[in-house]
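fyi for ur records
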Amino acid sequence: ATAFFLASGWPAERIEHWRILLKARAIENQAWMIACNGVGTQCGTTLGGRSAVIDPLGHVIAEAGTEEEVLFAQVNPSAATTWRTEFPTLRDRR
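which gave:
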């Protein structure tokens, strides 16, 4: 896969963990992470927002705030393929 889509309800109190883990997943999989997190309050928990698009190198291409919004980003699937060719870490998996 060149992209992973994630829908979540990550709490606001741990939103920095969300951001770090999204980057880590993109880097370790050498793939795009397109992640949507809830906002507002759900079952007594305040959700942190910060939906994001992360490229295969772990760079944040687009990130939403803590309120409801529509996020736009241009995703180039071939960027994952190119990066995997230049840095073929997945060939070492067992």
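The longest strand covers residues 3-8. thats all i got for now
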